Amino acid sequence: MTPAIELVDVHKRFGGTPIIRGVSLTLEPGQRHALIGPNGAGKSTLFNLITGKYPLTSGLIRLKGKDVNGLRPYEINRRGLSRSFQVTNIFPRLSVFENVRCAVLWSLGYRYSFWHLVNAAREVRERTEMVLEQLNLTARRHVPAGVLAYAEQRALEIGITIGGGADVILLDEPTAGMSRSETEHVVQLIRHVSAGKTLLMVEHDMGVVFDLADKIAVLVYGQVIAYDAPERIRANAAVQEAYLGVAQTATT
Amino acid sequence: MSTPTAARTISVADPARPSLLRQYGGWVAAAVALALLPHVLRAPAAVPVMNQMGIAVVFALSYNMLLGQGGMLSFGHAVYFGVGGFLAAHALNLAAQQGLWLPVPLVPIVGGLGGLLFAAIVGSFSTNRAGTVFAMISLGIAEMMAASSLIFDRFFGGEEGITTNRAKAVSLGGLSFTTDRDVYYLIAFWALISAAAMYAFSLTPAGRMANAVRDNPERTEFVGYSQRWVRYVSFCASGLFAGVAGGLFAVNYEILTAENMGLNASGSVLLMTYIGGIGTFAGPVLGAIVFTFLQSMLSDYTSVWLLYLGLVFLAAVLFVPVGLAGVLAMHGPAWRNRGFGRLVGPYLVAAVVTLVALVGVIGCLEMVYFFVSAPAGQVTKRLFWLTVNVYTATPWTAFLALIVLGGLGMRWAGPRAAAAFADASLPRAAR
Amino acid sequence: MSELVFFSVLNGLVYGMLLFMLASGLTLIFGMMGVLNFAHAAFYMLGAYFAYTISLYTGFWPGLVAAPLAVGLLGAATERYGLRRVHGFGHVAELIFTFGVAIVIGEVVQLVWGRPAKSYEVPAALDFPLFHLFRSSFPTYKAFMLGISVAIFLFLLAILTRTRAGLIIQASLTHPGMVGMLGHNVPRVFMIVFGIGSALAGLAGVIAGPVLGTFPGMAQVLGSIVFVVVVIGGLGSLTGAFVASLLIGIVQTFAVALNVSVGDVAGAAGIRVASLPALHDFWRITVAQVAPILPYLLLVLVLILRPTGLFGTRET
Asked: B373 and chain C: CB distance < 8 Å anywhere?
């Protein structure tokens, strides 16, 4: 089976500073993967490399078997990969409904059409309503996205990511800054929307990580020091030392 | 036979599809109003001004496709207006002299094609980026066109421009366009069609993504859209309609010069669009009407009308960035909550003190102008139905006092009006 | 021929250094605040007009100091009470604001001083030829202009590289946020830089007025060229502004002095010109006609190919 994402000896340097120092990773499709590591390890950089925001210094990145180095973000997105952002990155002046609709339009084939009216396109509306349902934001559909509460914005952030029906989903710290109950809701949402798809998420909340992930990759100083099932990661001595700390405060 | 209730389906109105009346009622009403206008306003000067307004409306709406909807600030939009206009003028001349089949009502289409073509060329490199780079490129193109007009004088007519004659073209169904009023109906028709088309554009995927690119260009790339292409489509559409306005100009005035393509024209459309309000669709319409009105009416009374317009523009940028239409839209909640009654008093007071200050400012500016430019020997001037002697101290102190009084009054009345507005916008239960 | 070259180079230098005086203020303001100040050329115009009025009462020399000071104060006030307000609305709003200021200043100048050009004269003390060469002479006043421009350049260089204030300004050019974090009153720095930039523009007006003419359209004549210089040189780079000013100054002066047509050039290169009527306009184009387009062509090319300009490190 073609791996969903393949990183082969990926290096990234900013100026003279190496951030990613040789990462090789193979993510099988249909599984949920988590990327953890201390701050500054390079997790967001790795995301930016995979999604085309930064070019590689060296190495290979393959999406579903095809090389994506040098492609623009929208080209990568059209091949079925979508990402969310750590800092909420929505369309603040558009309504919640319109935010999700933006994510839906391309995948339904509407491209740059100026001969369709979006309001008349039933499939656009239906798909958008469906996503809003999943996000539990149907009641807030007409609210400008900029005035939503934080947790609602994070949910919308995920909604925009999955609206286009991508089968490889990258989530960057989806539960950052959330309370316990909000986190639980988001975990349910993520479980729901990633069913049958490939998920890669960066997370700091270990409860979420061990709850959702099928496999965990640990990134430390730009290198993957372990990539394994959660129980084996928990028991891995190198990981404990580098990240979890000697006293096991991981589980909540 | 009565139908059992269980068999009757209850239809719930789809919130996304308002009734046909609400959707199209406004446009029908506008069409009717436009048709009746020349009969209502019978002053001889009215129709030429309305023609000017119609052209300005199309131009300003096309500009707002870039600025308000796309977030692209252009200092050279008049280039597409001008190129469209020149092409239309040449086409009309070809129709008159060489029998090209081009009835006058179709001339704006030629203008539109000219604007579209040129925008397609320039947009291919200028829409790479938005923001200051885009603005600077637009400025560079405008300057280049201004200089080119003297070189390519076959197309641009050099110093005298290109003249044309709409009476010589082939007639369509017996329609002639000899009088201003005939041209009015043509302009009104095209203005309505263009406005409807531009409104429809804003409801298409291209138009909606233009808003998205304006708000967050990075994120649109991550949902599958190239921000460059989205901007390019908007840019071409905007050039098309600017060209239509240019074609209407050619028909109306029967002359195009390099001035119509120049930086002053581009500056004017920026001013009128911004004053009207870039955040709503109707804002540019309002701005174009108000600007044209002030420009044509004020210039009869004062030579410094552009200064007044510039000051209004600055005031809008500093204090009322939402523009006239934006201010009106802000009163929506107050209207819906029947709070208008509470506004009358405080707004009236604020209006009066603002008027006092304005009279003072206008008085001083007019007197300065007179002082500087009046022919020798003239010492008195008619100002606000009074005759003043600018060489005495009285009028100066009087107008300065008005400014001070008005200013103080605004400081007192302003916050009260704002409080009344906030109060009136609350739902009735909360008051 | 060598006479043409010599005087074109000299005149080009004078014009180029004048452009630099304008461009330096603009690039400082842009580099630091991210605002492309549309009103910069309007401040240049105000400098000329202020100096003219002062010269009516006291002669040329006091205006050399008083006019730039007045313009600088006006610039600082514009930043403090106007630009600072719109700063939060984004770059587009700032551009629109400075555009409005430019219009208002232009109209106020017409209001207060009238539309006809003013006879702002070269001071008698400098109104004689400095030297004769071949058949032409070089006016002393132009040498004076060159002298002032070079002095300002050296002054700026000294301040920016050798004083603490200069270091702060240099730092703010590339990392304004960081400079704020270090405890400096960045808004005050902005206001001061805006004021100094405007004062420089005003000074340029004071010395250029007698030569380039003092009339309400003088802002438009130089305004766009200065933008071209700043963009080509690199936004925020003083070195770039210096190089680009001289480049544009000399190229433009040469282009106007030469008067060959495209057809001449083609003919000299041995290309036979078939006279197609549509291309007739094209072959008749002279270098002097193309000259006004060249800077803008360069502007557009630089913006497409290398938006950071020749020496700049920041884009907009």
From this structure: yes
